[in-house]
Write a structure and sequence with these properties.
This is GTP cyclohydrolase 1. GO terms for molecular function: GTP binding; GTP cyclohydrolase I activity; zinc ion binding. Keywords: GTP-binding, Hydrolase, Metal-binding, Nucleotide-binding, One-carbon metabolism, Zinc. Its EC number is 3.5.4.16. The chain has 7 helices and 7 strands. It is of the alpha+beta class. It folds into 2 domains: 39 residues, Orthogonal Bundle (GTP Cyclohydrolase I, Chain A, domain 1); 136 residues, GTP cyclohydrolase I, C-terminal domain/NADPH-dependent 7-cyano-7-deazaguanine reductase, N-terminal domain (GTP Cyclohydrolase I, domain 2, 2-Layer Sandwich). The strands form 2 sheets. The chain has a 5-stranded mixed sheet with strand order 5-2-3-6-7. It has a two-stranded antiparallel ribbon with strand order 1-4. α3 crosses α4. The chain is elongated and about 65 Å long.
Length: 188
């Protein structure tokens, strides 16, 4: 994936400002194209990251019980409207054969997947599949709750509404007790 082209973004922002009837040379807007280009480079930094890289460091630990990191905040940009959506992710897995990863790596994987033009459903499935492919656990489960600005500031205009997505793999697909344990701990 190539690096962000700041100059192209700046030109595009100037065109957008002109297209909506603004003067891009107005004092308050003079540096806006530059600021937007810098912001896009930051919020889309995940385009050059593979979430699996965060699971390259594996520790051996005799632990085959639930690991859950909940309430991981994230921010992303809806790929349909290029407006933000934000919320929390809950990431759970049950290690197998002593393969565990650092807890911060679960949060970093969510962050890297969210930092690109995105769909909430894709964040959920990409994170869970990355865990399954790299850690090979008994199972993994990811739940994402988010508020989408494309629904709150435009269109249907329903602020406060949340979208919840889940992706369930391995043991969590067939074991209602294991699944219920994760859900009850998230609610706790």
């Amino acid at each position: 994936m190539s690096k962000v082209n700041h100059e192209q973004i700046e030109q595009a922002v100037r065109l957008i400002l002109e297209a909506i009837g603004e003067d891009p040379n107005r004092e308050g807007l003079l540096d806006t194209p530059k600021r937007v280009a810098k912001m896009y480079a930051e919020v889309f930094r995940g385009l050059n990251q593979d979430p699996k890289e965060y699971f390259a460091t594996i520790f051996s630990e005799d632990h085959e019980e639930l690991v859950l990191v909940k309430d991981i905040p994230f921010y992303s940009m809806c790929e349909h409207h290029l407006v933000p959506f934000f919320g929390t992710a809950h990431v759970a897995y049950i290690p197998k054969n002593g393969k565990v990863t650092g807890l911060s790596k679960l949060a970093r994987a969510v962050e890297s997947v969210a930092a690109r033009p995105q769909l909430q459903e894709r964040i959920t499935s990409t994170v869970v599949d990355s865990i399954m492919e790299t850690l090979e656990p008994h199972g993994a489960m990811v739940i994402v709750e988010a508020e989408h600005m494309c629904m709150t500031m435009r269109g249907v205009k329903k602020p406060g509404s949340k979208t919840v997505t889940s992706a369930v793999r391995g043991i969590f697909q067939n074991d209602d007790v294991a699944r219920s344990e994760v859900l009850s701990l998230i609610r706790a």
